[in-house]
Amino acid sequence: AYIESNHDVDMLRTGPYPESLKARIRGPHGHISNLESACLVRDAISGPDRRLGLVVHCHLSEHNNTPSVAHATHRRLLGDEVRLGLASRGGVSERYVVVR
After folding, report:
1. What is the arithmetic mean of pLDDT over 67-91?
2. Contact 6/89 with Cβ under 8 angstroms?
């Protein structure tokens, strides 16, 4: 599954964006934080259909996130339940093979 993991809540709070933009990002029509993303994945793998084996983080903010922070947040909530990947922001990403 590809899932947005746009920002770290603390990095967004202390980051360079004006408050109006921070509010939009955090709002109901904004972006999905690392923690929200990890919770969505946790809920998906705790249901009756636990076939989710790969989660690829995408749309990471250049200013309010890093791959290592997104990865650590997911690992903290998910442990080793799923394989984690990263879609590159500006280049070619690793090739992922998805089987059904």
Report:
1. 92
2. no
